[in-house]
Amino acid sequence: MKKELLKSALPADGFSDLRYQEYALTTIKGTKREIDTVAVVKKNGGNVRVLSGGAYGTYCFTDVNDVHHAVKEAKFASDLILGKKQYQHVEVNSDHVVARPKTDPRTVSIEDKKALVQHYIDLFMDTPEIANLETEYYEQFTDTLILNNRGTDVRQEELIVGINFRITSKRGELTQITRLSFGGGEEYSDLLDQDEVVLEKARQTVALLDAEPVKGGNYDVVLDSDVSGLFIHEAFGHLSEADNLVGNASLSKTMTLGELFATEDFNVIDDPTLSGYPGSYTYDHEGTRAKKTHLIKSGKLAGRLHSLESAYFLNETPTGHARAKNYGFTPIVRMGNIYIDKGRQTLDEMIKSIDNGLYLFGSAGGQTSGETFTFAVQGAYKIEGGELKGLVRDLALTGHLFTTLKNIEMIGDEVNFSKSGGCGKGGQILIKSGKGSAPIKIKNMGIGGK
Amino acid sequence: MKTLLEKALKVSDSAEIYERKVQSTSISILLGEVQGIESEKKTEISLRIVKDGKLGAAIATDRNDDTLVSRALISLTHQKSEAEPFPNTPISEVESYSEIVKEMTTETLVASAFDLVERFKTLAKEVAFGVEVSRTFKTVSMVNSEGLDASYDYSNVEVGIYTLNEKGFYNASRSFSGADFPVITDEDLLGMFREHQLDDHEVTLGNERLPVVFSGSVMGALMLRVVGGVSGANVTKGISPVTDKLGQKVFSELLTIRDDGRLPLGLNTCAFDDEGTPAQNTMVYENGVLKNYLLSVGHAKKLGMKPTGNAIKRALFSKEIEDAPTVFETNLIVEGPMTDDEALIRGIKRGLYITGVMGAHTGNINQGEFSMNISSGFLIENGELVGKVKGAMIAGNIYELFNEVEALGTKKEPMRGIFYLMGYSPMVKFREVSIVGK
Questions:
Q1: Domain range annotation of chain B
Q2: How many Cβ atoms from other residues are within 10 Å of residue A420's Cβ?
């Protein structure tokens, strides 16, 4: 990295920062039984931001020799914006974070990785009625230099490795899709010895062919950790990203700290400093050290996720949550590892408390528009008279955030994190965004079938 | 590019270099204040090589990256692939860029964005709203060892405008896109304003079946499923519901769907696709009859058909240089006998007009299934929009729904396929759709 050249381009006045990133991605992708793509991607580029006028001017470049041009253009753009915004205090850091996994995927040969992936593929595809399988091994390594004109000089390596499966079972015209993920941290060893997990998922995917389609309506539901994690990510996590509040006074009022959002047992935290999950990191892409942040404490809105800009706008402290998909994008506020903290009830107690409801398992993607959210799940068990009964399929959920949070009646006593990350916002898919939760019980949840 | 091609040919039987140079600028304005101006200038290169009938690929941001060829060899060695010869079909010019947009400066873009801000402010007075404008200019060049040496310029301007409700959440919105600066009429803005005003007229629905009108924009959520069905990738894998249905009537005879990569100044117009196949105007469904699949070079070979110019470097959620050419739409066009938009709505006694959905990316897309939240939908009673539907979902399968088409509107809107726009559709009225309400 041409650090001195990059450093020399930063203007002294106002606020400016610069990221330069070397990006490497190894993927092994398969369809059905065959591995059809093996790719080793390498690309480099930078992204500069200048705040000399009323808001940021930013400029992305792929040729490092364009850095002076990039700074000039970014400054020109910022100066076009009326006003003068300046940060009084910026946390200044100087560090070099090196990824040091115990079992480093970068030292494993492509042959061995391929053999591992093929082994799991064969386990799935040898199961009768598994009709299609999409498999992806990914290993993303970034080496990012973050500089600003207040003195921050952070170089950070980030590594994430995992395998994602999307499994389709088929009988006649009926198909069912489930998902399974391994890894999501830095360790290659997390991907090994997962045969039992694969076989169990294959069995579940086939069993869903015998499930009844869910009847659309409102149900009392228990969400497993994976689904609860998706729920808190979609329903509340995005709203806690404080860049939504910049320039939006009405939403800032809606999100006043201290407002009662949920029952007093309910606690939501985002913590990138936990190690080994998809959303784990040390510094965000503005060079701010990541901070464990309480978002809901005892049911009350307690905090939010910040970038430098959103913290300045709300006169709060940056939490280190401004991140970008890669150098081609400007950092926006993203969740690290968001989770619902543990409560007091066992899963068994939650199920026993429901006379007629559903136990939902396996997340399958969701979306939010602020107040309302929706997400799909892989399947559910009926709960009748406090006991788990047969499987139901084809479930999608929807709800209104504020009503649903208040309808959370019970919180489980054990937190588990999902092994795959991933979140889309502002045209950026970020795989390093994690989620977890204790299981939760929600009353009167809207469920749509096909 | 030729030097790199020669270098690659030293270790391979045939080779192809794809290069794209992108310059873009985007501006966002909220409540009359600029929130930021973002620009980029990127050069990205992709190499594909064939040796002993196998294909390998690698990408870089620097032509002089000396690992590019060796990485392509790694991919060639390890992936199972049956390489097809790189195409060298004559490329004809298409109108894929506008000189005005090419020359557009950041200042002009800011001024255009503020023009729109002023116009909407005049119409909507106190309403809180935001405007986003982005401008892209791109040059794509390809050379291959079969003799292809072609390039085209591409421009695009995308304009988004949205309102906020009293709590500060997104309310009504519209998108506009094309190679030229899109024409936005007062009628467009007034339509959005009327939808905004209905936010405080909340209505709830029960579980019921109702006539439903999808706006042109929301048709994108359904067209994602149409593309999944006719994608050569899914047809050749045998996982498309329309495998072996060429020539059969699959949808209502009112529905015609084309994929027109050559549409003058369209939002995805290109001279050739990312494998070098010339862009085409492919009839996909004509009066409901399946006429063609969308095919890459490889899929076409397997099916004994011709490639359609739809092999595009993208995925559902990304348009990165490393995305292998995969079947996606260019400008998908939905058409049929036209009814006046207002008359179409006026003719409905009780029904739903949907202008926004969430969850388009979930469910079994390739099988045509959908189960989505209605994030913006309006109850129609006696031909009038009477309130905004809250907390309802819509579910079904396009292979049933698209046989229930009753009418198509007139004005075409860009269709939204999650992150990206995918072509143009008018509003479409369906006879009956299942709604899950309270």
A1: 2-195, 201-438
A2: 22
